[in-house]
Amino acid sequence: MENKAKREIGRSTQKRVGLRRRWRGFIALEPADRILFLKLWGQLAIVSVLLRLLVLRHVRRLLTRLIPKKPNDAIGPDQTMSYAQRVGYLTRKASRHLPIEASCLRQSLLVWWFLRRRGLGVELRIGVDNREEFLAHAWVELEGRPVNDSPGVTEGFHPFDRIP
User: 24: helix, coil or strand?
Assistant: First the structure.
């Protein structure tokens, strides 16, 4: 019985340390990035639930309808790539704090939708790698460059469709 109590104390200590580390990471963000992180975190949860309920085609159609004709908070042309990469980075960071798994498809769908609402011409890309086993991966590109993945993603995963 004594060992069980010690293990429980150890787990609760680890949880507190993990929470403190996450909090420090959040506080270390710039104030504007904290707000953006919270928006992305909430919207990532919504996209994840939608993908559990509907197929990708229907979720994408629904999200497309929610893209305004006139972009929200338009981004200047000289800031588009850095802004898009920041959204990708913060989405990855937010995905680690959800109680459900936020796959690359869920993250990429959110990044695509979020940036489209701001008037950026991004594309959702899905590719496969079937050299040793069948693997699929999703990412978002702006001007042919990945914004939420490494630049070499297309070397490992061969895109089979462009989804504007």
Answer: helix
Instruction: State residue 163's pLDDT score.
Output: 63
pLDDT single digits (tens) 9-38: 556 666 667 778 888 888 999 999 999 999
- Rounded to 5°, the CA angle 70-75-80 comes to 125
Q: What is the CA radius of gyration of the chain?
A: 18
Q: What residue segments make up the domains of the chain, in order of their start?
A: 30-163
If DSSP codes are grouped into helix, strand and coil, which group holds residue 79? coil
The C-alpha angle 52, 57, 59, rounded to 5 degrees, equals: 50
Three-state DSSP class for residue 54? coil
User: Angle 56-65/31-53 helices, nearest 10 degrees?
Assistant: 130
**Structure tokens belonging to residue 108:** 């990429």
β-partners of residue 138 are: 126
User: Does the pLDDT at position 68 exceed 60?
Assistant: yes
Does the pTM of the predicted model rise above 0.90? no
Partners of 147 in the beta sheet? none
Residue whose structure tokens are 């980075």:
89
